[in-house]
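Entry 0007
Protein: Sugar ABC transporter ATP-binding protein
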Amino acid sequence: MANGSPVPVAEAAGISKRFGATVALRDARITVTAGESHALVGRNGAGKSTLVSILTGLQQPDTGTLRFSGRPAPAFGDIDAWRSRVACVYQRSTILPGLTVAENLFLNRQSDGALRPIRWKELRRRAGELLGEYGVDVDPTARAGELSVEQRQFVEIARALSFGARFIVLDEPTAKLDARGITRLFDKLRDLQRQGVAFLFISHHLQEVYDLCTTVTVYRDAAHILTAPVAELSHQALVEAMTGETTTGSDATAPLSAPRTRSGTLLEVDGLTLKDVCRDLSLSVGAGEVVGLAGATASGNVQVGEAVAGLHRAEAGTISVGGRGVRTGSVSSALAAGVGLVPEDRHLQGLVHGRSVAENATLTVTDQLGPYGTVLPGRTRAFAARMIRDLDIKTPGAATSVSALSGGNQQKVVVARALATDPRVLVAIRPTNGVDVKSKEFLLTRIRQVAESGRAALIVSDELDDLRACDRVVVMFHGHAVAEFGPGWTDEQLVAAVEGVAATAAASDTETHGR
Ligand SMILES: Nc1ncnc2c1ncn2[C@@H]1O[C@H](COP(=O)(O)OP(=O)(O)OP(=O)(O)O)[C@@H](O)[C@H]1O
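Output (structure tokens):
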């Protein structure tokens, strides 16, 4: 650069991108320097993922320039050239589950020449070396599908570095990790940063931005709003930049409303035993109550929530709603009892991609959309329009394909769908996954309204913001309920219980995966 400052590893300027009538980016810019950990934040639909797809060569911008280490970006489609400059670790895996770790690492580069046979032993050795070099403790012969999310992300990072890239984009990498996994990921990133690797880090968890990043860029409504050192920007100033609204000092993480008193049990889980998950677990949620079921990845809390919704058969124990038994392992029995579910993985269990927002939002209530099993398009549209308004879903319209929505707005469609049935018991698994700070508050308020109308909600999550919206929090550790918190718990107390460091019998058995 002319002024003598170091050449940025990545520099995008004047980037615009349109999808039909939607402007995803308008004259946007970003500059990432070597060894920097740079956060990109913004509300759902602000344009972050679109920028990532442009920075990684997956999409071409309509206008703008892109340079890596001072040189123009490779030609569109020259995959090898892009890979040597930048890589992205997504929330969703890009490694192939049926192949081994070694095969994934050297996919399409197994042998020196197209006609030379692949030397498997050599391949495994090289994979072992590569993983060792980056301190990734994963067996090269393991099937990728059997890795934990954390191990899989480490493999993806090692693969990116092995292509020569010194700039890595991490798109919500912590969304599926528990607290320990996040700590290990951050340790690794700091380690690599010291070796000169630069990161662009996308997260809706602003605390993570403060913990990990040195610089932050905010996008709002498709445009660049500011870039500043993280240390110079208060939490409030950051949220204001994201929302464009002045807050009156209110804390986004404050409790949503006063805790409610329960009146009569609506959901009763008694002595539940799920194979390899939990043993003799009991839990109840009263009418008018929101209960949190917290726990780390291996705690079994997600499976218990899913079991309430009929997704797992129990070896022993009962589940009942309003005194009526629910057959475990039967989704239709759970539905008939009035259980609604926000599933953990919106991609696998939540959405029908390629179908419209309206169709997805009304999938669970087709019986209300017309007489005698018919579905009236007008009624579907009206129903969907109400949900779009109610949950503040950012979409050009009800007829838009859900695949065209940003991640956070897709999540809102999943929540909308679960709420549409007016469930007596709503089981919401990590309901605010990928949702921005403002929308998070909004979604949690909607979930609380389920309880306010005399129904019950079980929020299965390890997100403190989600748990703060609950009247009570039950903490699971390795298949057992080990603690229960009423109002007024502190983050430290809850995290300690989740980590198994509270005074519990299970506390000695902690590490389950990773290093
Ligand atoms: N393939 C597409 N077709 C149509 N519209 C799209 C497409 N991809 C993105 N958009 C639109 O562009 C806008 C920006 O979306 P983008 O995914 O970049 O947002 P984001 O900031 O990553 O949001 P989130 O935090 O929810 O992931 C949104 O309005 C989105 O609906």
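Curator remark: Residues 19, 22, 24, 42, 44-50, 394, 404-409, 434, 436 surround adenosine-5'-triphosphate (CB under 6 Å). Residues 179-194 form the longest helix (16 residues).
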